[in-house]
Amino acid sequence: MPNSLGQVPYTVAVLVPCYNEEKTIGQVVTGFKSAIPQAVVYVYDNHSMDQTSARAKTAGAVVGYEPHPGKGNVVRRMFADIEADIYVLVDGDDTYDAFSAPEMIQKLIDEKLDMVVGTRLTEHDAMAFRKGHRFGNDLLTGFMGFLFGKSFTDILSGYRVFSKRFVKSFPALSKGFETESELTIHALEMRMPTGEVITPYKSRPSESQSKLRTYQDGFRILVTILGLFKEERPLTAFTILFACLALLSMALAVPIIMTYMETGLVPRFPTAILSMGIMVLAFLSLTSGIVLETVTRGRKEMKRMCYLSIPVFKRQDSEEKR
User: Fold this and answer.
1) CATH class of the domain at 12-232
2) Of 165, 199, 201, 166, whose CA–CA distance to 183 is shortest?
3) Distance from C-alpha of 64 to C-alpha of 98, rounded to nearest angstrom
4) Which of 73-82, 101-110, 179-188, 284-293 bottoms out in mean pLDDT, i.e. has the lowest?
5) Alpha-carbon span 69 to 51, nearest angstrom
6) Of 186, 158, 194, nearest in space to 170 by CA
7) Which whole-number Å values give the CA distances from 284 to 234, 241, 287, 291, in the listed order?
8) pTM score, whole prediction
9) Is 51 strand, coil or helix?
10) Other Cβ atoms closer than 10 A to 272
11) Of the candidates 251, 318, 244, 313, which has an alpha carbon nearest to the alpha carbon of residue 283?
12) Greatest extent of the chain over all pairs of C-alpha atoms, in Å
């Protein structure tokens, strides 16, 4: 039975970034308008070459445009343009279940969360994941959990519900599909209250084509995770680099030191100089990590203050005062 959401005193915006989704966008818009009658559905067209915009408008969506290619660019534009108390982010390929949104929104409200992720890995069609996608998802999720701490089971899910304070404090620097990883890491590093809801995941319609490139996008997501790890935890990242360089330097130096202790000679000056240079680089890396950790702490404090300056569910608070 479809979930239903009561008439909560909040404005709800459904955000649908789209590129060439004319086959499915109509069903997505009508599905979410049926599941959340009080919500406004926004479809932002990422310079599609088909009838995506026209069909979204016919289905009753508010249509916007973002000319710069990439899902991350569209999400950045939508987060900047649209004002609401609660945001639902979903893909336009009709693979996510619209009637899971009320449960996700209710969880966000009841538990006072900032992000609820619709996890796809438990209930999904047999052909919903392309070859290698499930393995890649598990690999990237596990790797992110190792670096940042395990909090989610499906970091690549495109189905999420956010509070206003999350959306308006999110820097949105990614350009493409790696934006899901950036959303997850932002929540983890800001120590926001988050949750997950199991949601059905369907296969794409046969006439609809996926924009995801398995290996290229997977590599970009991996690079994004490593880059954000360096940005958010520089002391740890540069300490690891320091340890690797120091071990390499010592591995080169040990035979030279042993020879010197036995003969009193240093027969391989180039190797000795290389070992010394690598050790200098190791300590420069450690020093960089210490300095950047201080900078990062100040940046996190500013982001936290920006996050706290945005009221949660302002509409409800104002009504309670009446």
Assistant:
1) alpha beta
2) 166
3) 21
4) 179-188
5) 17
6) 186
7) 13, 10, 5, 11
8) 0.79
9) coil
10) 16
11) 244
12) 90
